[in-house]
Write a structure and sequence with these properties.
heterotrimer, A mainly alpha, B mainly alpha, C alpha/beta, A: mainly alpha, 38% helix, B: mainly alpha, 68% helix, globular
């Protein structure tokens, strides 16, 4: 039985072209839609206590390091202890309803479970202190936290994304677009004005070997 | 109507004398069209049991981890890679018979090449399965493929294992194409003979509108020749690459320059043996004596004998070099093979692969079906042990005696191995059930009736048949 | 570790509790298998951060860990309130920065999920209040009879505070008695010194000062008290830095292999019962050669000993000892009877090595543990004189002499209470079981062998709500409301030290107080109690200059030798005849892992291979090949050892180098109530141990039971097969040919297939392992396990060859079976520059860093195991199963939560299906590198210390930067004894070995 018309002679061509482009398409789809810049960026869970970085960091102009006190000496920036909140809020807005959960927890000693937003896999060892010391601003990885009422992940935090910066800094040193004066690391709005490369106390040597982050 | 075929000088008939083209069609198509004999159902159900065993074993493996197998330090590889190499080796006969013999104009191949190709496919599938399940974390096996990713990482092209991925992958693809191309004319025959509408549709689809026209035949021949040309180097490359998994390492007993050729020969050897094993059974059950003559078997046994001798030579060379190199570690490994705790495996290998096939020096043996069947089985066993010996005995005692150890297979090891054989035969039985097991068109090509001068020499007027009518009759037969 | 980080933590329990809660969630999250990105992770902040704590940064605290009359100073690493790793305290005399395997592993006991969470009364859950009430009732009752029917059975203590409280208890209940018992004690040592010097004293040896050392059945490097200190000084005395340097010579006479025997230049396998005879014969020979032994010498000469000794072991050794003179010393093992100790004392005195090498310090615990002490308690109970019995620590039901029948006896007492970490054999037989705190959970003070007192401070509030022995004593002494913290502080004030056997003069105005102890030794104590003194003591881990019982540095002058007594004693000692096939000897040996059985539930120690036999998870009856063939047994045969009406069954293991006719029986195994891990592991040999035979016993018959037993060994093959693995030479050979270790390998002619990497710039990490220093004590193996979260796989998997320890110690036997020599070789990844493992990985999970590290990225590994095959050292380990589930605990939930708390947060917990191996402690390298980046300075040599290097008591391992020509490692790596194992393969190992040097006595040949 012959059910192939003459046009069927095109099938091989269609098959070849279609097949190949389908594969490429599939790979591209997976590459993007399974990648963190799609699955992670924009992650913004609700937190147990309504805390607005916009209010504290921008409107009140608190420095990041007032709460994230150890960020310059420790690998983790660390969520501040409740004591830090109460330093002010035992006086400021002491009776605000929004702060009720905080006060309760403080008085009862209950645990407040914040939800981690900017999270790396467990097998990645990231150190905040060295990055700040090298002049990488908070904003480079966290985005404009100071404009967020509820913290949201802004960057993919994928390995390729990390390496992009590391390689750029290794190559361009002070001229790298990812660097800023160490004094400005917590300045969210900082913009590079001069085209002069930064003067670095010592050449930066950002790691590109595996065990720098994976151990 | 039968015509005495014209024989070229010294050439014996490749089809039972007295067969017409139609007989061939009948013989072969009958297999796929008529109801299967009881033997088939028995065989198939046994195969299915082992398929189940395979499924359970692999499930266990994935659930518990590689520890479900007997693999351990220092034998981090054992049956898994043994089976992988064994199956790849078996998968060699296909391309060799189809492509190389085709290019060397070995017309006798036509009777067996379809078998060999089908076998190749299922064997290489088996090999790829073991390559896939032997890794510790199968769920990230896609790291092996050069895909763009968020880690901006690529696989390491330094590693022979990656070469494997490409070599075996290519080999499978080409073999598949080759097999299918060869099938097309026969599929058309099946289509035209089909009695049920769905058979007609399916065969019709895969026959890709074959008309048997002069043009089809011309394109077909050209495509087939090209594919044969492409796959011929693969015969060498695949198993050479597999051999390099070992040859490029530094483990004494692995780090050997002889491995690539030695592996290729071994592959051909085991491939032919496996073809023999299946072929003989099929020939009996499906009464293919007309197309598969003792002469074919005789020729195959000659190949087996030749490769067997080459293998024996390779074994000897290994020992010589181990001694000649003056490398104490190397020497120890080979002594250990011959007299160490695994010597039983080593001597099984030697007996099955080198000693036993020597009986084929006698023609009577080369044509004695029961004998050659037994021998072919023994060779399969021997070749499995060859891989076992190479992998396990080299690993279990290498440089530092402090880390020496023994390997003991687990029940899951046995399950995965025997199961994979079940999968192979299940696939093969299905192939015999539904597709022409012999390349009809090619066999016919070797028959006298296909000879253009045929009519001139035969068809006497006094037969009462005019040349024209004879020609017409031929045309009919050719079509059927 | 900066000083401030060692200041004490805020000792409020609830703070550290919350700390540990927070970190618990963290550690749970850390156990996520593959880091599934969408999983919501909770962050629990502190409510208010404890003093000094910086989340994400480790803190270090100094404390102390008591063991067998000694106390080892520790510096413990703590992460957010979780003690994770134990290191030695460089300032503490018994540690000097190192610790041994057992101490390393003790941190795991803290988190053992099977510690009892609450007091139990008759097996039922109860409370501390209930116990306190019952106890008070009892005590008020005993107030009437002055405690006549009140007894306490304690373990020998090192703690001045406990001493003080015991004294107070004694005052409160004059008629009450405190008994002490420990299965392994220093009774013989003290009896010996009493015989020789008239006082119970403990010899302290400065092995670094010794030139000729003769060990009479003393394993001073591993199982004797003060082993770490001895190890340190011994390795100093053996150090060979150049062909000019000299080294000490060690003779060892012992029944079975010990770590010390392994380090010996000459080793004589001799039944333990024959050692006294040998000592006497040697003394006689020494006297003959003119050593002024006086009466002792004469007595020794007249001693009739059946069976002779190899002449060279008498004459040559004696000559050598005499040659050594002041720097020759005899060391005697605690197992040997008093007379041998006394003899050694006399010989050392005569040789003049007292002072330079040997000094003595008073035994601390006056009621020194003796089987007799326990026996008297048992008889008192039998006579119905005991109504209340408190057992503080210890496990007598399991480890008491079999002829005392403690188990049956306990039931005769109205109220028995047992303070212990686990419901063990003894607790099961008592009315009350009281959970005891771990050393890292309680306040205390411990006195080291040399008298130095160190403070024990808690790093974490009691996880299971236990109480320390000190607290119980406090309540017995009537101070039950006092906080342990205050009690310890109080003791630290010098005057209170007096209560532990000292009398004082002086007023302490000058900040010092003069003390004279009972024996007229004059000591000065600083007056502590000033906050800064206290804090300094807490930070340093030692009470500056405070010593309870100072060492007698010049015994020759201070202590008269009672030669006649020794002679008399020697005369009436009858010496054992050599054992025969029918009348075998058994020698009870302190196990290098289990000690006396207290560590049976510790998975690290269970999985640690025995230094000699390489057996894991078991003990074995060790016999020599000759004896084995006489008895018709082979390895794995279960034998029945009978002595009188007592018998034990144990699987035999044929070990070359064991004394013929002796069966070595390691103590501490075959526990029945140790917990899921320790139960029924190995064979209990205590049933054969009686009050008259605590060390060894003769007249034992052995029969085959016909059963077979499988051992799980980490090493299957004992011979080097003639391969140049452990390379060695005698001191003479070394002097003639300093570079003997390098193989003459023809340079490779083949052209390089690739351009070599340039390692001439930056840091290039490397390591040297000095085989001359290494004694195979295996402390490093446990240190590595603790530092790198290495899983434990269990006996069955070890038997299959799936052990996971990154660092292993290979042990080979050399020479003939009669007199074999054992050689050890620590083996971990050597970080090859041309690493064979790396280029076979198909997914680039193995890459070489610019600093020469062969790095593995677990989360990239797909587990083809090709690298493990291609590693010539077979140092790569594969996670065949998910050990956290399928491992020894076998809980589907993974590792028990408390054990997760021990894990090092800076090292990934590996999942099934990936390869792992030694990383040169890359997490430590990384943290120091980051610190230098933070502080804008360069790395200094010695900044980075690997876990194995840090704990090694022999300083055998050195790590550092090979490009820094000043660094210790580069000096050693370029030194004359260096060699690269298997470097002929062209793989350029970064770890280089330093060949072993022997110092044999030519006259012994």
């Amino acid at each position: 039985m012959q059910f192939f018309s003459r046009r069927a002679n095109l099938f091989p061509l269609v098959l070849a072209v279609g097949g190949i482009s389908l594969c490429v398409f599939a790979v591209a789809m997976v590459w993007y839609y399974f990648g963190p810049q799609f699955t992670q960026v924009g992650y913004s869970p609700k937190q147990p206590i309504v805390y607005s970085h916009r209010v504290h960091a921008r409107n009140l102009g608190l420095d990041c390091r007032y709460c994230h006190a150890n960020v310059e000496v420790s690998s983790v920036a660390s969520v501040p202890p409740m004591q830090t909140c109460m330093n002010c809020h035992s006086v400021v807005a002491a009776s605000s309803l929004k702060l009720a959960p905080l006060r309760d927890a403080w008085e009862s000693g209950a645990r407040v479970e914040w939800t981690r937003v900017n999270k790396l896999p467990d097998y990645v060892y990231f150190d905040h202190s060295v990055h700040l010391g090298a002049g990488v601003g908070c904003v480079e990885c966290h985005g404009r936290i100071d404009e967020m009422d509820q913290v949201e992940q802004m960057k993919p935090l994928s390995m390729g994304w990390c390496l992009e910066c590391h390689r750029d800094v290794r190559a361009n040193q002070g001229a790298s677009r990812f660097l800023r004066p160490v004094s400005e690391v917590t300045n969210m709005g900082w913009k590079r004005t001069s085209s002069e490369p930064l003067v670095l106390p010592r050449p930066l040597n950002p790691a590109e070997n595996c065990s720098a982050c994976h151990r | 109507m039968y015509h005495e075929p014209i024989l070229e000088l010294g050439e014996e008939p490749l089809v039972k004398p007295g067969s017409t083209l139609h007989d061939i069609t009948e013989d072969v198509c009958r297999v796929a069209e008529s109801k299967m004999p009881r033997a088939w159902y028995v065989a198939f159900s046994i195969a299915l049991v082992f398929v189940a065993i395979f499924a359970v074993s692999v499930a266990t493996l994935f659930w518990r981890g590689i520890g479900a197998w007997g693999n351990t330090g220092p034998t981090f590889w054992a049956w898994d890679i043994t089976n992988f190499v064994w199956w790849v080796g078996i998968g060699h006969a296909g391309t060799l018979i189809s492509a190389v013999l085709f290019i060397f104009r070995q017309r006798w191949r036509t009777a067996i090449n379809r078998f060999a190709e089908a076998m190749t496919l299922f064997a290489v599938l088996g090999a790829m399965t073991f390559a896939g399940i032997h890794v510790g974390r199968p769920w990230v096996i896609y790291y092996l493929f050069p895909l763009p990713d968020q880690m901006s990482l690529w696989p390491s092209f330094k590693s022979p294992l990656l070469w494997d991925v490409f070599a075996v992958g290519t080999y499978f693809t080409v073999s598949l194409l080759f097999w299918f191309t060869g099938l097309v004319p026969d599929l058309a025959t099946m289509r035209d003979r089909a009695t049920t509408p769905w058979r007609r549709r399916v065969f019709g689809f895969f026959a890709m509108g074959w008309r048997g026209s002069n043009r089809s035949w011309r394109n077909y021949e050209r495509a087939y020749l090209i594919l044969a040309g492409i796959s011929t180097p693969l015969v060498i490359s695949v198993h050479s690459v597999v051999a390099m998994d070992f040859a490029t390492s530094i483990i004494p007993g692995w780090h050997t320059t002889i491995f690539p050729p030695y592996f290729v020969v071994g592959a051909v050897f085991s491939g032919f043996a496996m073809v023999m094993t299946v072929l003989l059974v099929a020939r009996k059950i499906f009464k293919l004596e007309r197309v598969i003559l003792p002469r074919h078997l005789d020729l195959m046994n000659k190949v087996i004998l030749l490769t067997s001798c080459l293998i024996g030579f390779a074994y000897a060379t290994e020992f010589f070099i181990a001694w000649y190199s003056g490398n104490p570690y190397e020497l120890y490994v080979f002594k250990n093979r011959a007299v160490g705790p695994y010597s039983w495996a080593y001597w099984t290998m030697v007996v099955c692969n080198v000693i036993v096939p020597q009986i084929f020096w006698k023609k009577s043996m080369r044509t004695n079906v029961p004998v050659m069947w037994v021998v072919s089985i023994l060779i399969n066993v021997g070749m499995w042990f060859e891989r076992f010996v190479i992998i396990v005995t080299s690993l279990h005692r290498d440089f530092l005696p402090s880390s020496w150890g023994m390997f003991h297979p687990s029940i899951v090891d046995i399950g995965t191995f025997t199961g994979s054989i079940g999968v192979f035969f299940a696939g093969f039985l299905l192939f015999m059930r539904y597709l022409p097991v012999v390349a009809m068109s090619e066999v016919k090509g070797t028959m006298a009736q296909a000879d253009p001068h045929y009519v001139a020499h035969h068809a006497e007027p006094e037969d009462g048949v005019s040349r024209e009518s004879a020609a017409a009759a031929l045309a009919m037969e050719a079509e059927s | 570790m900066n000083d401030s980080s060692k200041l004490p933590p805020n000792p409020l329990p609830e703070v550290s509790r919350r700390g540990f809660l927070g970190s618990l969630t963290a550690s749970l999250a850390l156990l996520g298998t593959e880091g599934c990105r969408r999983a919501t992770e909770k962050v629990v902040p502190y409510q208010s951060v404890p003093e000094q704590v910086i989340p994400g940064q480790a803190m270090h605290f100094a404390t102390v860990y008591a063991r067998r009359g000694d106390a080892v100073g520790l510096v413990v690493e703590s992460h957010e309130g979780r003690p994770t790793k134990i290191e030695g305290n460089p300032l503490h005399p018994s540690s000097l920065g190192a610790v041994d395997a057992i101490t390393q592993a003790s941190v795991l006991d803290l988190y053992d999920p099977e510690r009892t969470p609450s007091p139990l009364r008759a097996g039922a859950k109860s409370t501390w209040d209930a116990f306190a009430a019952e106890l008070d009732a009892r005590l008020s009752k005993h107030a009437t009879d002055l405690g006549a029917t009140l007894r306490v059975l304690a373990t020998p203590t090192n703690s001045p505070t406990v001493q003080r409280l015991r004294a107070a208890f004694g005052r409160r209940f004059p008629a009450a008695r405190v008994h002490t018992y420990a299965p392994v004690d220093a009774a013989n040592v003290h009896a010996g010194s009493t015989l020789a010097l008239g006082r119970a004293m403990q010899p302290l040896l400065a092995f670094d000062q010794a030139k000729v050392i003769l060990s009479l059945d003393s394993d001073f490097l591993q199982t004797e008290p003060g082993n770490v200190r001895a190890h340190r000084s011994f390795s100093v005395g053996r150090a060979v830095t150049s062909p000019q340097s000299s080294m000490s010579r060690l003779y060892v006479v012992e029944p079975g292999w010990s770590t010390t025997g392994l380090a010996a230049d000459h080793r004589l396998p001799l039944p333990a019962g024959r050692v006294p005879a040998y000592a006497a014969a040697l003394a006689a020979e020494l006297a003959r050669l003119g050593l002024p032994l006086g009466a002792v010498g004469d007595a020794a000469a007249t001693v009739k000993a059946t069976g002779a000794f190899e002449p060279r072991w008498i004459q040559a050794v004696a000559k050598d000892l005499l040659r050594g003179g002041k720097s020759s010393v005899l060391v005697v093992g605690t197992r040997q009877p008093a007379i041998v100790h006394a003899l050694a004392c006399a010989v050392n005195r005569a040789l003049g090595s007292e002072g330079p090498v040997v000094s003595y310090v008073d035994a601390f615990d006056p009621s020194e543990a003796k089987a007799a002490d326990l026996a008297s308690l048992v008889s008192a109970i039998g006579a119905g004189k005991v109504e209340t019995l408190l057992l503080l620590g210890g496990n007598p039901v399991y480890d008491a002499p079999a002829d005392l029948h403690v188990q049956e006896t306990l039931s005769k007492v109205q109220l028995t209470a047992h303070l212990a970490g686990f419901v063990d054999e003894t607790s099961a037989g008592c009315v009350w079981h009281l959970p005891m705190t771990h050393e890292l959970e309680a306040w205390g003070d411990q006195r080291a062998l040399d008298g130095t007192v160190a403070l024990q401070q808690p790093l974490i509030a009691p996880l299971f709500g236990g109480k320390s022995e000190l607290e119980i004593w406090a309540s017995l002494a009537g101070e039950k409301d006092a906080r342990p913290y205050d009690l310890v502080r109080a003791t630290s004030r010098a005057p209170l030290l007096l209560e532990s056997g000292l009398t004082s003069s002086g007023d302490g105005k000058d900040g010092k107080i003069d003390c004279t102890d009972a024996l007229g030794v004059h000591v000065q104590y600083p007056v502590l109690g000033f906050e800064h003194d206290w804090k300094k003591a807490l930070r340093d881990g030692v009470l500056a200059a405070a010593k309870v019982g100072a060492p007698v540095l010049d015994p020759g002058a201070a202590l008269a030798l009672r030669a006649p007594d020794i002679a008399a004693e020697l005369a009436k000692t009858e010496l054992a005849a050599p054992p025969t096939r029918e009348r075998l000897e058994v020698a009870f040996t302190v196990d290098a892992k289990m000690l006396d059985g207290r560590h049976a539930n510790n998975t690290w120690l269970q999985e640690l291979a025995d230094p000699i036999t390489k057996i894991t998870w078991d003990n074995a009856g060790l016999v020599s090949p000759k004896t084995a063939s006489e008895l018709g047994i082979e390895t794995g045969d279960v034998i029945k050892l009978s002595r009188g009406d007592r018998s034990v069954t144990i699987a035999a293991y044929v070990l070359p180098g064991t004394a013929d006719g002796t069966v070595i029986l390691p103590l501490g195994w075959g526990r029945t109530q140790a917990g899921r891990i320790g139960n029924r592991r190995g064979f209990d040999v205590f049933p054969l141990r009686t009050t008259d035979a605590m060390g060894f016993a003769g007249g034992v018959s052995a029969t085959r039971t016909g059963e077979r037993y499988e051992f799980a060994r980490t090493q299957q093959s004992d011979s080097m097969e003639g391969r140049p693995l452990v390379r060695e030479a005698t001191l003479e050979e070394y002097r003639q040919k300093p570079h003997f270790a390098e193989l003459e390998v023809a340079p490779r002619r083949s052209l390089p297939l690739w351009t070599d990497v340039d390692y001439s710039k930056g840091h290039q990490w490397g390591m040297t392992i000095d085989l001359n220093a290494c004694t195979g004590c295996s402390a490093c193996v446990v240190a590595c396990q603790a530092e790198n979260n290495i899983p434990v796989v269990g006996k069955e998997e070890v038997a299959k060859g799936r052990d996971m320890q990154w660092l292993r110690i290979d042990r080979y036997f050399e020479g003939e079976a009669e007199e074999p020599r054992a050689l050890v070789q620590p083996m971990a990844c050597v970080q090859c520059e041309e690493a064979p493992c790396e280029n076979v990985c198909p997914v680039a999970a193995l890459e070489h860093s610019a600093e020469g590290l062969s790095e593995i990225t677990y989360n990239r590994c797909i587990g083809t195991r090709y690298c493990a095959n291609n590693c010539p050292y077979k140092v790569r380990r594969f996670n065949f199963l998910n050990w956290h589930n399928d491992g020894v605990w076998n809980e589907t939930g993974g590792l028990p939560e408390t054990l997760q708390m021990q894990q090092n947060p800076n090292v990934t917990v590996r999942f099934r299906g990936v390869i792992e191996k030694c990383s040169y402690c890359v997490q430590r390298i990384q943290s120091h590198r980051l610190a230098t980046k933070r502080e804008g300075r360069d790395l200094r040599d010695g900044d980075i210390v690997t876990a194995c290097q840090q704990t090694c008591p022999a300083d055998a391992i050195v790590f550092g930067d090979l490009n820094d020509l000043g660094s210790q490692v580069s000096k050693l790596a370029m030194g004359d004894r260096r060699y690269g194992l298997l470097q002929e393969l062209g793989i350029k190992p970064r770890t280089t070995f330093l060949a072993k040097i022997q110092n044999p006595n030519p006259e012994m040949a």
